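Suppose you are handed a protein chain with no further information: no name, no annotation, nothing but its sequence. What can you learn? This example shows the usual starting point.
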Amino acid sequence: MTRAPLYVLALALALSGCAATPRSYDLSAAPGRSLARGTLALDIVRVEPPFDGDAIVIRTTDGLERLGGAQWADGLPRLARSRVAESLENAGWRVGDLGGVRLRVEIRRFEIDSLTREARVELAAQFAGGAARVFVASEPVAEISGAQPAMALDRAFTRVLGDLARWTVSVR
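A reasonable first move is to predict its three-dimensional structure. Written in structure tokens, the prediction is:
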């Protein structure tokens, strides 16, 4: 008889541990056509908190908060660098740490605005000693809970990456 209550308690503890684990979300790269030729060195500028970790960030009237129960699959700078590189490769660039052309990308905004219910992504890109441009996109967010914020940020980010990739080809 004493086994059943211990089993129920163990099961309840195991289930509560599962509920506390945040769900991880990934980002997509922009599809593209192979139009560029050449090697591109990519630098993601160090981003400041709260965009330097795995938090999905919500801007509220009180400031910036972390979306509960959700996180990025990796730290945002690493995840963004990977998807920027993949998008540029989809556009035909060979992306590496060394190359004839150097592109610097800064993550300026990557957040959900709770007042406007929009996902906002802003990246600034600059070729070493040359052209620069800021890329901005926003997407509506139906709910600021569950998967909705991550999905909206992914859509906005993918649009920005497509614009960035096309721009790099047109400038170089």
